[in-house]
Peptidase M14 domain-containing protein
Amino acid sequence: MQNSFQYPIGTPGTKWTDSEVQQWRESTSVKRLYNEDVLPKIDALRESLDVVQYGALSYDEARFPLFALKTRAWDAKKPTILVTGGVHGYETSGVHGALQFAKNNVQDYQDAFNIVIAPCVSPWGYETINRWNPNAVDPNRSFYQDSPAEESANLMAFVASLGTDIWAHIDLHETTDTDESEFRPALAARDGLEYIEDNVPDGFYLVGNTEKPAEAFQKHVIGFVEKVTHIAPPDDNGKIIGSDVVQHGVINYPLKKLSLCTGMTDCEYSTTTEVYPDSPKVTEQECNDAQVAAVVGALDFLQTSM
């Protein structure tokens, strides 16, 4: 349904120019620090994992270095698994769930897989609690050649530099109340479109690949996650965020068409997690645990498929 809310930046029906983008950027503020919340946790893992700097954001290269973690028992004969978090920097459990998995669980799987973890793809977004980067570009719609998003371009270049195929990619995200109160209205304003209100689902769900849906894989992951948190039900139209529910807690997107993070490779298995941190039924720790459960569930399935 149409929403009467008018975003405070821009003119309704008119796309933003550089002036509106600057106005939007000036409206943001730092709310937490990457070098306090994230970088120390990465540094603490240097004894057990290889820490690789794969770039830095030009907004402030000293402040926003980009790091990935790699298992040390690397072997070209083993399949390679990619785990990403913080592609949307505001989605907190994506970042800290990836780091929790790296700290507590990755060693259980390094004999079977090469595992690469990029825990905070968008550190500027992390600090300002934003979906976009400072140029009002969504990194998770920018995974294509000559990407306008540094966050996406750096990650794609790093993954390509690994010189190996990615067998599976698990991308850790959240769907929050601010998706409807801030980010979707801002998107409509930026693009000069009408904002149509939608509902935020109460619970966890997965986004699979329309071209490679991998139904059994998605079902296995949901089975692990629902031991930790509740799964989002479909709405009255059998949908979650406007997409058909294809099985319990799962919808599909055309990943490459939308230039999503999980579409940047031709991996056989991919899933995007969506934790709902604003539910009164969950705690911050349970959100992180749900992200870890999704990665563990994915790896458990893949081990049985080898």
